[in-house]
Amino acid sequence: MKNLALTFFIPLLLSFTLSAQDYDADLQVLLPRIGTAKTGADYALVASQLNSLAQSEPGRWEAPFWSAHCLVLQAFSEKEADKIDPILDQAESLLEKLIQQHPDEAEFYVLMAMLNQARISVNPMTRGMKYSGLADKNIEKAMNLDPDNPRAWYLKASNVLYTPAMFGGGKEKARPIFETAAEKFGTYKPRSPYHPDWGREQNDAKIKACESN
Amino acid sequence: MVNTVARNVNKPDLVMATIAPQKKAMNYFFTVLVFMFLISGTQCQTLISGTITNMKNEPLPGANVMVKGSIDGASSDTLGHFSFTTHRKGEAILLTTFIGFEADETQVKLDGTDIYVVCRLREQSASLADVVITAGSFEASDKKKGVTLKPLDILTTASAAGDIYGALSTLPGASVVGEDGRLFVRGGDAYETNTYIDGMRVKKPYSSTTPDLPSRGRFSPQLFTGTTFSSGGYSAQYGEALSSALILNTTGMASESQRGIGLMGLGISASKTWAGEKVSGTIGAEYYDLKLYNSLVKQRVSYDKDPVGAGISFNLRKKNNHDGLLRVMGNASLSRVGLWYPDYENNGVQSPVNLDNDNLFLNSLWTTSAGDGWGLKLGQAFSYDNNRLRPGERGIDEKDLFYQGKLSFYKEFTPKVNLLAGADISLSRFVQEYTDPSSSHFRVEISDQMPALFVESEVMVMRRIAIRAGLRGEWSPMLGELVVNPRFSAAWLIGEDSQISFASGIFNQKPQEQLLRFTRNLGFERAEHYILNYQIQKNDRIFRIELYQKNYSNLVCYNGLDFTNATTYNNRGNGYARGLEIFWRDQQTVKALDYWVSYSFIDTRRLYRDFPVKARPSFAPEHNFSLVAKWWVAKLNTQFGGTLSMASGRPYNDPSSTGFMDKLAPSYFDISLNASYLFPLFGRTSVLYLSVSNITGRQNIFGYHFYQSAQGTIISDPVKPEADRFYFIGVFFNFS
């Protein structure tokens, strides 16, 4: 009889624990999907999955942060200029809340800088000056909080690379900064499995691009 | 699937703890676990699939579907199809989201049976932030949607030579009046257009000039982030303009500290900007002397004193703690010029005309939040202008003092309802002194303290219809008259990229000081506007077409032969202007090429001033056409620009003809070119700028003056530009 009771009881118990949100487990499932996402729709889906997860535990930073990260990537993949701002607006509101809660987290400013750079593509002629300036400010904040953050250095270098030589940018000026970033990537250890650890490959690729003419 | 495995792998510890560590039980447990896996692989899992469409049943690719509160979901493919599985059971909500559409929630029952759903998403209804009422309005800012011209566009328009008003004259609604330089909008005289900086009226926005030489704006386009050129139907916030409002908003905090020096063929300028977190400021100075230029480029007019001028300017920005921002700007300038000009009242004998002008302008705006979602704006503007004109032996000295204070409150109750209310007061004092060696001294002083109240609300009344309704009341103690102006406009978003909008209203303006010199027994002049506009904007292309009707009444009339006689003055003038305008801008078709085309047709007649009968005024050519093109050549770091302007001939009055204003001057034609070359210096970007007007050298004639020669014959004297071509060369250095 006892066995019979267990036969009914255990599946019941299991289904209960299954339906309770398991934040960390879900996170571990979703984070790799950011890496495998290809289209804008893929990013949008992971972003809203993460957002849904974020609502289950409002105190945690990981899901909203990665959701915002995903939205920024979605914006970069978006081809219609009109659609970029609404996507970034969502990301920015997530990120602004996070910065309010954790004003000392360098990675949040790094992402904000990326977001600023994404806004430029809507209209480079008129937005270039303003948003690359904003990006610079956020990179500076990130560097003040965490001078060894390699992604801050990587973004700084990218900003220089995409600034025309006329305006004090270009390959030659960008290359030493990418190299500094590479050194930082060499020693950098993310503080938790959920902290960002991207950028090495991109940085190496940019160094190569700077070398070629 | 991946999802479930991950969870189950983490679970055994927990499950084991709840079961007694008996071997039998352990075996049993594994059996159950295997069983569980089987169940989760088959019955516990529900397959959800379906299609997502818009309300017209067209598939929406890239939309998201999720089981609410879980991370189970999928996005739709190119045909709008999706499918995914979930382990959730029981009642659940399927949440469908897509940017630009309202989220949809569908109740489903998850019990292992496959589910197929069709989700139809409704397009998000627009909020006020998405709607710009485009009837009568050209907005230029980098914030809002529906932008047609940006501040940078003004700076780089070839025919404008850096002048705001010059650039705006390439837009539909504005007429080219080459010998004047001011804005003439939709058959209206220049005084019918007013300029507002940060909401405050600018009494003397144009530089002071002698007759038949064009004036320029006093303010550099670089001071402003947003420019709205309204050719009618504007907000109840703005008064004292019969035809048009040019609304300029200054920049916020400076972002970078820098110094700048400009060397021009005609002068020199320098500026310094400090940028801090809470405070930023700029000071600048400029000086010009056209002596050298006039000796190099042949001038049609002969200068007695070549134009010279100097100015200083500043602006200050201060952030307060509670979202407050204080902006203060000011400039002081003086200009001197003397030239020989035919005296038409004296057989056209050349006589010297000297003009000295001193001008002071201060403007401040304080914006802050007033709690409970209310925003507060307090603006103050002060100007002083001293203009001393010396035609021959005569002297006309004018002093103009103007102050305006304006307090307004704004609240957005919901994204679909907002309210603006406020009050302003304008204090003005105008003194004219006329001296003549033969006659006695004549002095007139006109002052007024005019309070005004305004209220305006914008409401989304239906999903796609926004309306703006406002009321403005003004009281002039000098005229002893109260006027109430209702204003109404609406926009209907008919498609994702297109809209129809309508604007209307009543607009009043006090008679010009020149008309009040001999009598105050006059009333406000009045105009009614009705404007219908269609606009379609897709990516970087915009097309708009506009129809309007403007009815004038109460225009001031007098007898031109007896203009000092107060009894000839009355408000019996009237008239109309109606027309069609087309605008096309394309920044997309050819990479790095941006061009726009404007065309305006005006049909207008008016009885005003000293007109004996209703006639088309000289400042309203029937057809106006302009083409502006800009081409950025990255390899050369240079932007090339060109402007083609054409206008049909303007009416003039030939005293030998029996009719009034029944002759037409030749049509106007001009091609201007410019180039801006950017180059690095001291880690900043410097600019070399070149421009030349009227490249074809066409002899444009704006109209004719008639006078009686000493022999008694009537002579017609054509009004021409001061030179065939205008050249500008300048280099602007920036330092950190």
Describe the structure.
Chain A has 213 residues and is mainly alpha-helical. Chain A is 77% helix and 0% strand. Chain A is globular. The termini of chain A are far apart. Chain B is mainly beta. Helix content of chain B is 7%, strand content 55%. At the A-B interface, helix 1, helix 2, helix 3, helix 5 and helix 7 of A face helix 1, helix 2, helix 3, strand 3 and strand 36 of B.
CATH top level label of the largest domain in chain B? Mainly Beta
Which class best fits the helix and strand makeup of chain B? mainly beta
How many DSSP E strands of chain A?
0
Give the N-terminus to C-terminus distance of chain A in angstroms.
79 Å
What does the secondary structure layout of this molecule look like, with pairings?
The complex is a heterodimer of chains A (213) and B (736).
Chain A: H1 2-19, H2 23-36, H3 40-56, H4 62-77, H5 81-101, H6 106-120, H7 124-145, H8 150-162, H9 171-187, H10 200-211
Helix pairs in contact in A: 2-3, 3-4, 4-5, 4-6, 5-6, 6-7, 6-8, 7-8, 8-9, 9-10
Chain B: H1 2-10, H2 12-18, H3 23-41, E1 46-54, E2 64-67, E3 73-75, E4 81-86, E5 90-97, E6 104-110, E7 115-121, E8 137-140, H4 151-155, H5 164-168, E9 174-175, E10 184-185, E11 193-197, E12 200-202, E13 224-230, E14 244-250, E15 258-264, E16 267-275, E17 279-289, H6 291-296, E18 303-319, E19 325-343, E20 349-371, E21 374-391, E22 395-414, E23 417-435, E24 442-462, E25 465-476, E26 481-493, E27 498-509, H7 513-516, E28 525-538, E29 541-557, E30 570-586, E31 593-607, E32 623-633, E33 638-647, E34 651-652, E35 663-664, E36 668-681, E37 684-692, E38 703-708, E39 714-719, E40 727-735
Parallel strand pairs in B: 1-7, 11-14
Antiparallel strand pairs in B: 1-4, 2-3, 2-5, 5-6, 8-13, 9-10, 11-12, 13-14, 15-16, 15-40, 16-17, 17-18, 18-19, 19-20, 20-21, 21-22, 22-23, 23-24, 24-25, 25-26, 26-27, 27-28, 28-29, 29-30, 30-31, 31-32, 32-33, 33-36, 34-35, 36-37, 37-40, 38-39
